[in-house]
Amino acid sequence: MSFLRKTVLFTLFIGGMLLPELTIAQNRYNIGVCDWMVLKRQKLGEFKLAHELGCDGLEMDMGGLGRRDSFDNKMRDPKMAEIFTRTADSLGIKVGAVAMSGFYGQNLAKKDSYKWLTEDCLNTMDIMGASVAFLPLGGSGNNWTDSVALRNIIVKRLHEMGEMAKKRGKVIGIDTPLDAKGNKKLLKEINSDGIKIFYKFQTIIENNWDIVKDMKKLGAENICAIHASNTDGVWLRNDSAIDMHAIKATLDKMNWSGWLFVERSRDVKMVRNVKMNYGNNVHYLKTIFNSYPEAEVKLDSAGRDAAYVNAIIGRSQKATDQLGITWTPMGQNVRNIIANRYFKLNDIYEERDSVKKTNKQLAEAQCDSKLYRSHFAFDADLSKYLKPHHITTVKDVMTFNVVKVTYDAHCDMIPTLKEEEKAQILAWLIEARELAIDAESSKKKHEVFGKYKGRINNYLSKRGYNLQKEREEWAKRVKARGGTL
Question: Are residues 104 and 141 in contact, defined by beta-carbon separation less than 8 angstroms?
Fold first, then answer.
């Protein structure tokens, strides 16, 4: 930075003119996930998961409610509350909102413990440092907005709950089936600054309303937080019903700031893969609303053909896809480590081929030396982000899962294999994988495994197995199961 620019920035800081605005812009939008949807409802692991997904924070649920008079809320235990807050702080994860999701299934008009439940929620918000609560009204049925008697009860109770929140400097965001016009009318009836709308894209889409137009009509002052997702189907980046760029531009113009939480938008083909679904959606929202953090591991792509680089990235991503971490900061680093390994191998073999033209023996010696030195560096780099069994998964993906396929085939072909024989077969296949992972092509990788398969066959023959007969009997069993070899 030039001396002139430093001077200007320092002057503006002293005058209080620029830096506060920069801070506001940088912190304008925060991205999180709902802990009950990522299967971590009030579980300590929710903070680690949120960190791994690249979230700024999360929406913590109050716990199950059912027909009980109270939430199953762990935060009433001071010791548990201390552990949760300490863990969240250590990982830099904020609790952006506290959810009373139990009211998805319970009728607010019939829950006589509503004041106690509200107090419990407000206490939890104090503990976790949240200023916004989420209150769905789905449990009140589909007709409460039109039923005068039912609506009056809900409005009265929401007013009381809102005033309780207001006294403590907090806001309760309600989830309704209404559009902007209906929500503004409802808020006017409630008549409490402690009640606002917890905006939900899914509701707007299901009613065929326009999100951008509806948000403009509702106004920034009436939106306390946003559930920025649709029902399950596809990831946000693939959802034609949501123009996220237009939504971002609209919120900018409205001068709105706050939390956007991913509740759903899971890919139905992998609905249970939490890291892939929520990692992808968080990554997408962070890319749109904030600058997504750059990977610590830089891609060694300078000076390389763009098509080749993209092909290598795609190949590397197969491993992070298998681990379910592709769309997380950790996944980005792991993907780059794998890609850089492919780049390194390409460089080593290109240099070998170049030196071969003048000295074949020297070329092979240099190549072997560089492969040996770099082989262990690959494991070391991966170990910064992955556990040993995850590193094994990476290697299996890079070698076409030959270890498992071959091992399982031998065990299926010869059901009478002894445990020590199975162990020896697996040991040789793992050894082959370590060599194959450094091979220069898929053909060469399979050739490595081919040699070890020959060693295994010789070993089994010496142990007294008639491999030809074993294969014939195996083929019959597989055919009887309706399969083919």
Answer: no
Q: Provide the 10 A C-beta neighbour count for residue 297.
A: 18
| Distance, CA of 341 to CA of 394 (rounded, Å) | 12
CA distance 153 to 160: 11
With CA atoms as reference, report the closest residue to 54 among 235, 290, 237: 290
Return the pLDDT at 11. 33
Distances (CA, A) of 424 to 235, 445, 450: 44, 20, 16
Query: How many residues belong to the chain?
Result: 485
Q: Tell me: pLDDT of 16 over 50.
A: no
SS3 state of residue 256: coil
Q: Rounded to an integer, what distance in angstroms lies between the CA atom of residue 33 and that of residue 172?
A: 18
Please give the DSSP secondary-structure letter assigned to residue 267. Answer: B
Task: Say what the pLDDT of residue 27 is.
Answer: 65
Rounded to whole angstroms, the Cα distance separating 306 from 198 reads 44
Q: How confident is the model at residue 293, as a pLDDT?
A: 79
pLDDT in tens, 124-168: 999 999 999 999 999 998 789 999 999 999 999 999 999 999 999
Three-state DSSP at 66 gives coil
User: Which residues pair with residue 57 across a beta bridge?
Assistant: 32, 94
The DSSP annotation for 276-307 comes to: HHHHHHHHHHHHHHSPPPPPSS----TTS-HH
- Alpha-helical regions (H) of 139-236: 148-167, 180-190, 201-206, 211-218
Each residue of 416-454: pLDDT tens digit?
999 999 999 999 999 999 999 999 999 999 999 999 999
Kindly report the pTM of this predicted structure: 0.81
Rounded distance between C-alpha atoms, residue 236 and residue 230, angstroms? 8
Are 441 and 447 spatial neighbours (Cβ–Cβ below 8 Å)?
no
Residue 223's beta-bridge partner residues? 197
- Give backbone dihedrals phi and psi of 282, rounded to 5 degrees, phi first: -65, -45
Question: How confident is the model over 213-264, as pLDDT tens digits?
Answer: 999 999 999 999 999 999 999 999 999 999 999 999 999 999 999 999 999 9
How far apart are the C-alpha atoms of 459 and 418, rounded to whole Å?
13
Specify the DSSP element, H or E, that contains 40: none
